[in-house]
Amino acid sequence: MTEPSGCPVSHTDYRHDGPMLSHYAMASAEREAAPFHRNDSTNHPFWMVTRYEHVLEAIQMPEYFSNSVSNALSPDRKVRFMPNNLDGEEHLRLRRVLNRWFSPAAVRGLDALARQRARDLVEEVAPLGGTDLVEGFALRYPTEMFLATIGMPVEDGPKFLEWVGALFANLYKGPEAEAAVASILDYFDGAIEDRRRGPRDPETDFLSRMLHPEHGPRWLSKEDLKTVCLSLVTAGLDTTRSGLGYVFAHLAEHPDDRRTLVEQPDLVPKAIEEFMRLYSLILQEGRLVLKDVDFHGLPMKAGDIVWLGIASANRDPRKFECPDEFRLDRPNTGHHLGFGAGVHRCLGMHLARHEIEVVVREWHRRIPEYALAPGTALVERGHQLSLRSLPLVWPA
Ligand code: HEM
Questions:
Q1: What is stated as this protein's family in its record (predicted)?
Q2: CA nearest 308: which of 63, 64, 52, 79?
């Protein structure tokens, strides 16, 4: 079936759970069938851009494609995330303020803590001989590292585990998710008031800097500052948990790759990039068309919604040879779009890479041999990919 532009119509609904890797298989099949589709599986039909070259080009056309919609599967979200959903100058001035907290230097500054906490958490589970990584460790660790990054007490981690769990169990929908949003905003409201009463060092304490009369962004209201904090929580914690899930699922099921990384830990950074290509957690970035455009023959109209298929681009054989294979010697791994591209490229990518790298190294130092618990069938969440669980076992 085609629609008037000649573009094939896709009914594929990416919001449902399925076996691990099933969403990549669906996205790859659509990419090979055609470069563009019209998808009618939701209440808001959208254009799908499936191939690497086109996805990269469109990501870099913010004058046509607005981030006010950043997810084609749920374009009518109630919260306007900041900086995620901002465009133009409004977006850039906020990014300039936020970048320093997530720069390579900031991440290096937390290295000792990052290693120590990873060792402590691995030491906690090692004697057990097994754990569900996605349920526990994989969310606990990024939560603590995020809190440390913005100068909040890591002891508050357990509260966030509960809230993030509720937010992502049903992807922002339902009363539990709404209650979690309210609790996160409340938490930061209290923290802002606390900093107003007693400012901390603006070099290390994010909120004190944001409220600082000289160094802080005076144009940012308290409500917006709370939204920024909520946006960082929603953008950074579940994604890193998902990343750890896919990385460890792969290593549990590919003992040769695992042994290579155990024996040659210097290869871990290269491996992380290849994992971010192979297992794109963000299936797609949504965009709103701002003005009519003929995109390689596809007539898009102002107001249309677009799916920029990061996952299908990252497995596009036109760009990556044998794209479904994990290859440490791939020459162009670094061209992957797992963290996006252009002005909205992931704010937390250095932090995320570092967290995953530290966990892989520290885990392998203590637990070099592990496998999936017998009889496990891994299930991935639809919409924004994550494994629902990852039960691992090892000789205790
Ligand atoms: C493996 C983990 C992660 C992955 C795969 C990931 C992926 C992405 C992608 C693809 C985008 C671009 C979205 C777009 O263009 O619309 C993005 C944006 C963003 N990410 Fe990440 N991310 C990860 C971890 C983090 C972390 C740890 C943080 C911070 C704590 C973070 C904060 C953000 C923010 C704030 C944005 C919006 C940036 C902007 O619009 O300027 N992310 N991320």
A1: Belongs to the cytochrome P450 family.
A2: 52
